[in-house]
Every structure is written in C-alpha cells, then in structure tokens.
Amino acid sequence: xxxxxxxxxxxxxxxxxxxxxxxxxxxxxxxxxxxxxxxxxxxxxxxxxxxxxxxxxxxxxxxxxxxxxxxxxxxxxxxxxxxxxxxxxxxxxxxxxxxxxxxxxxxxxxxxxxxxxxxxxxxxxxxxxxxxxxxxxxxxxxxxxxxxxxxxxxxxxxxxxxxxxxxxxxxxxxxxxxxxxxxxxxxxxxxxxxxxxxxxxxxxxxxxxxxxxxxxxxxxxxxxxxxxxxxxxxxxxxxxxxxxx
Amino acid sequence: xxxxxxxxxxxxxxxxxxxxxxxxxxxxxxxxxxxxxxxxxxxxxxxxxxxxxxxxxxxxxxxxxxxxxxxxxxxxxxxxxxxxxxxxxxxxxxxxxxxxxxxxxxxxxxxxxxxxxxxxxxxxxxxxxxxxxxxxxxxxxxxxxxxxxxxxxxxxxxxxxxxxxxxxxxxxxxxxxxxxxxxxxxxxxxxxxxxxxxxxxxxxxxxxxxxxxxxxxxxxxxxxxxxxxxxxxxxxxxxxxxxxxxx
Lengths: 245, 247
What we know:
The complex is a heterodimer of chains A (about 240) and B (about 250).
Chain A: H1 18-21, H2 25-28, E1 32-36, E2 41-46, E3 53-62, E4 67-74, E5 79-88, E6 93-102, E7 107-116, E8 122-131, E9 136-145, E10 153-162, E11 168-177, E12 183-191, H3 195-203, H4 208-221, H5 231-244
Parallel strand pairs in A: 1-3, 2-4, 3-5, 4-6, 5-7, 6-8, 7-9, 8-10, 9-11, 10-12
Chain B: E1 2-11, E2 14-24, E3 29-33, H1 40-48, E4 53-62, E5 65-66, H2 72-78, E6 80-83, E7 90-94, H3 95-109, H4 117-130, E8 141-142, H5 148-162, E9 166-170, H6 178-192, E10 198-202, H7 207-212, E11 216-221, E12 224-229, H8 231-240, H9 242-246
Parallel strand pairs in B: 3-10, 3-11, 6-9, 9-10
Antiparallel strand pairs in B: 1-2, 1-4, 4-5, 7-8, 11-12
C-alpha cells in the first residue's frame, strides 16, 4: 500500500519540491527499515545516485548499546531528500554526518526524527550545506526524549555556506523533551567564507577561485573524518563541490 | 629588490602608514622594530595585499615590478612570502594538501612543472625535520590545535617548502621559547640568506636579531621610519626603549 502523497502543510515537507517528487513517488513511498541488534555496530555511507530526483527514507532501530554511524551526501540535481527516523534503546549511540551540496534551482534536504526511548542514549547530528545559485538546502531535525529516557545526550550542529544571494538555507531543530536529566545541544550558523582564511590561502599562492574551493572543501570534508571507509564519499563530495562552486 | 617609497596606507579610513620609505637590496636582511601600534603589521599586510589595507599614496616595487598592482597570489608567485603574526586555522584541510596546492599553483603561474605527490612529501618531510617539527603534524588540519609556538614554527616550514625570494616576517619570534627561537633563527638564515634573496624582519625584541644578524635596523614610529642603523641600534633600543630613541 502506498503512503498518501505529502503536502506543504505537513511541517516535515514544508520546503520539499513536491512537483519534482510527484512522478516518482510510487517507487519511493515505503521507508526501508534497518535494525541494529543489541551491542551491534553499523556504519553506512549513502552516496548520491545519478537520478534528478532522489529520495531515501530509512527507519533505523537501535537496540540496547547498539551503535550506528551514517555518512550521507545529498546532492541531487533537482530534488534530493534524506529522511531518517531513528529510535534509540538504552545506551544506544547514533551519529549522522550529512551534507547538502546544491547549485542551480536544486532543492536538497535532510529530515530527521531521532527518538530517545531508553536511558543514556547518545545522538549526534552534524550537517553542512554548501549552496550556490538559487539552490535550497534544508535541515529539519526533531529530537524526542521520551519519559524516562534520562541521561540522554543529543547534539545537533548545522552550518550552511551561501555562495550566492539567491541561495537559501533552512534550518529547523526541534526538541521535545519529557525527561528532566538530559543534555540537548543545538547550534546553527549560516555564513560566508572567512575573509582571513581566504587571504591566508591567497598569500600562499592560490588564486581566489582555488582558495574558495579549498576552503569549502575543508568546510565539508571534516564530516567524513571518522568514516572507516570514507574514500568514496570524499571523492563524491569533492566532485559535487567542483560542480557547484 | 624591495623598494618602498613614501608609502601611505589607511585601514578603515584611519591613516596608519604616513610615508614609509625603505630599500632592501638583494642579499640583505632588514629588521623593523617599533612600539605597538606604530604600523609594523600594517606594513606587512600592505606588502602582501590584504584586502581592506588601502594605499592612499606612494609606491612599492619588487624587482622593479609594481607590487601594489598585483593580487596577493600573484605576489606569492613572484616570490613574496608573508609570515603571519597570527597564522590562520583552516579546519578540514591538511597542511600537506594546503601546501602542495599552494606550491603547485605558484609553479603553474611561473610556467614550472608541478611537483608530484611523492616529491612533495619528500620536500615537506625534509623541511619539517630541519625545523625540528614532527612531520606527522603536517597531516593535521592547517594550524588547528597547534600551540602558538607550533604555529610560528609551521610558518617557517611553509617558508622552507615554498622557498620564496623575499620574506616579510611579522613577529615570527613572538610566542617562541629560547630553543624554538634559535631553531627559527637558523631556519631563516638557511632558507633566506642568499645572493638573490631578501628579508624584512618585523620584531619587538632584539633577541631574534642576535640569531639572524640583520644588515640594517629601522625604527618605525607613528607610521614612519624615524631611525635607521645597524644591529647596535637594536641593542640600544633594548636598553633604552622606544620613547628615548625618538628623542
């Protein structure tokens, strides 16, 4: 059975390019479910595919003490959406490192719902967006801490770099906490490249275009530092940046 | 080699340099000393082309070429190096990548062949070793997590790798302990002492000058060179301070 087609009135679809999604909705509608058993460890690298419209919907269930690290690059030419619903049992640990890289008229978004169900769960989400032209890059991240999920430690760090005045970054962290002994941190910045870093790079011989490309690479590449097998996503991110800058 | 004539410069419309004239011939090391706020760092930034440092009058030529008309990266390719007083951190980019791209960019614009990955790493290791810096540090992001002294030493490793013809070193000695000061001093001599090379060494203290031995010492006060002499002038300043030197 196919899920009903979403509308902009639904908060988690507010910035979506529904027009682009409509023709392919049937193929994507059902989320994929991943289960990581108690004490087990999962690392996933999500690379972009060649399609104009890309939608990845995943439900991730982490058992007691389970660990999951997701590295995701979202850089569809028209519309890309990564949607992730995560539940954490006691002492489970979840990390998401995601990038939106877009140019032209593209829309790329990462939408998460992280549910801390058990005691002592840890989640960390780091999202970096690089947007040029009239591109839109969004992060909508909901963190729910259930009653009794004490000592939860949840962190969201969201940074966007806009290379053109026509580009848009949306960032909406949302917290719903029903426990009193928790740590939930979130930070968001939207900025331009640092003038002093640019001058430093140029003073070493890099022309302004190359200096800019290098700094943007640094901005994004830090995401993949902890990946065990990060070569493919590093290469793909570099290529995506080259197209956009 | 470097000729500065009646240079006036403003930062955010505030005049900082008020007619600096200075000539550093090839093969010489000149030191610039001066109190805080006298314009030493502004002079360094103007020579390297930092945006926001506006020249309102005067000229600067490097080997007869109009330095002020060149972009920062063109000055670097021409052989000018600025050692930063506060080296900048660049997260996400390793020192090796940063310097390899910088060096090859310079070489391309000079019409020289690029250095291969292997040759570059060999060069980088060699230079790090000469400055007694752990070569493993070059794998780390540029200046991130480096102490003040490590950053300054890393600037000298950069200078060794890029091998410029002229270096403007802005308080490279600040933040260094006595051993590091000697190593950096020896580095400057090794990399920059030569017939076709020159150095403008900006410093507060005379100590580095005992290692590097400048050919001339100039005092910059209120945006102008007020005195020039040999190393004896630096020793005198160390004893008397700038207030008396101006009198």
